[in-house]
Amino acid sequence: MAKAEGKKRIVVKVGTSTLTHKTGKTNIARMAKLASVLSDLKNEGHEIVLVSSGAIAVGSVKLGFARRPETTPELQASAAIGQCELMFLYDKLFSEYGITVSQLLFTADTLANPIEKKHLLDTFNQLLNYDALPIVNENDSVYVEELLNGDNDCLSANVAKLIDADLLIMLTDTDGLYSDNPNTNPDAELISRVSEITDEIYEIAGDAGEKGTGGFTTKVKAADIATGAGIPVIVMNGEKPTAIYKALQGDSVGTYFCARRNN
Q1: Do residues 8 and 45 touch, judged by C-beta distance below 8 A?
Q2: CA–CA separation, 120 vs 128, rounded Å?
Q3: Which of 55, 92, 93, 189 has the largest CB neighbor count within 10 A?
């Protein structure tokens, strides 16, 4: 695997399954460890942008739902409430390390509009210049496409592309891309390196997890977007955020998608 060591501008995407327990409630210990690792990476000189899912799950619990809501208005309301809770937790956890966080909520329409896109990029660059840590999510309260069909995977890739990131790290509930579904096939093997994203890679991408709305297909699609912009991608298990250190040192962690060149 090519070394990721020395990368400066890093986008980290964390999925719902990484941020919550099987009960649906927030995994505070894991969030705290993630905040610790990302704060330390900033202290090393990296610029970090966090794309965080989990708003719907956190909001649903706070509203007392026993399971994920099914109707779009319920999902939107849960997202609105969950964003407050998530940002409260992130602000509290990162502030322990002296890190200032900010929240950026936008939609696909923002990226499709040249003027709004430029303003968004200016905001990212200014926040990073202030040494703040932007925390990004789709504005699920008003835009439902990602809410219903994705899990911020492609959003993280588009953010990485927008800010010309050096690396995209996607934290999920599996060790990476397998040759088959590891939940049903014990002989499935972890694919540690993907040099080219082909139709075959899309075909073997797994199904959605229990709590998130994006399966591995959306992660491959996100990797396709990022690598096409010359940005390598690492998809890895978010159970132990400290594994990010190993990934940045060039150790084989998760699945490494090679950046495409001459685009």
Answers
A1: yes
A2: 12
A3: 55
